[in-house]
Structures are given as structure tokens and as C-alpha cells.
Sequence to fold (91 residues):
Amino acid sequence: MNYSQEYFERMQMMCRYFESQSKKNILHVPEFIASSLINDIIQKEEENLIASKKIEEILAEMKVTEHQNNVHWYDYKIHVMNVLKENKIEE
Fold:
């Protein structure tokens, strides 16, 4: 996938935040896992359509998973949506 290095660095920083918070609050664990998976997909998946589908599935699962769901997760999702927008494939 194509992505802004600056955006991706922020996403990695947020993932580290979720990881550190998960040691204090179990509700951050799903956010850490999801952000780790999403960051990995963005960094490694070359096919935009496949990557977008995987990311959308993770975000959909988070909607029904109990998690902290505060401003930090919202900010992370904004970054993810911008990466998806940058890589949108026209049908």
C-alpha cells in the first residue's frame, strides 16, 4: 500500500501507546492487537484491494468488540481512513 511516512509513523506511535496502556487497562488490548495487525498490513501488503478488505474487516470487528474506544482510538481510525482513501481503487 502507498502511505505517507509521517502518517504511518504516527500510527506506529499510537500502536505503541495502545501497547503500553494495555498493561494497565485490559480494554486497550483489542486496540493494540488491531492497530498492530493494521500497521502490518499497510506496511507489507502490496495489493491495495486485498489490504483494504483486511483492514475494513478488522475495523468492523472492533465495532462489536469491547475496548477503550476513546479519543486515541478515534485518532488512529482517522489515520487509517486516510491511508485507505489514498489507496482507493476505482471500480
About this structure: Residues 5-86 form one domain. The helical segments are 5-22, 29-44, 48-63, 71-86. The chain has a mean pLDDT of 92.
